[in-house]
Model the fold of this input.
Amino acid sequence: MLAYVVLNGAVPSVAAAGLLWPQSDERGAMNNLRQRPHRLRRDTGARLLEVTVTARLPDDLVLKKRPAPSAVDADPTAWDDELLGTLPYDAAGEFSTWLAVKRKAWADARVEALAGIASEAERQGRMARALVYAQRLGAHEPLSEHAHCRPMRLHYLRGDTASAVAAFEVCERAPKDELELRPSTETLQLL
Done:
């Protein structure tokens, strides 16, 4: 409930209640929505949610924001966490659909940030830095052949042929095991 309000901003209470308690009628769902802030305050001692016509965060509540690309620039692991952890919400109806879209956007932004930093570092000739970000990218995109080719190329450019071959083996293994795919002609040429 808090994540939904945090990521969407103030939302109509009826819409939030229906999304979060789809099995309940409107009256029951609204009752649940009104009771949650009281339970949260009792359990945490903090005022985390205000529910009137809208469900919204209190004005004085300060939240830690998602790391900006600049945070990833300083720490390649800054964006490693998944949105709402790895908790499953598959049985939560529309909420699970909403969360899947938000998790995908989160992951896409992370991949874009990592790829951008790796590309810029490579362009600047900072191969060791580029390699760190390329390897993080490969960890987040284990089935992406393209994500695994970058470390191969960077190892080769650094003169480390053995590590380039080891990176190819990682690149080959995941798609082969998961999807029964072989590396592309381009990847084999790179090898």
Notes: Residues 155 and 164 are 5 Å apart (CA to CA). The longest helix spans residues 94-123. DSSP finds nine helices and three strands in the chain.
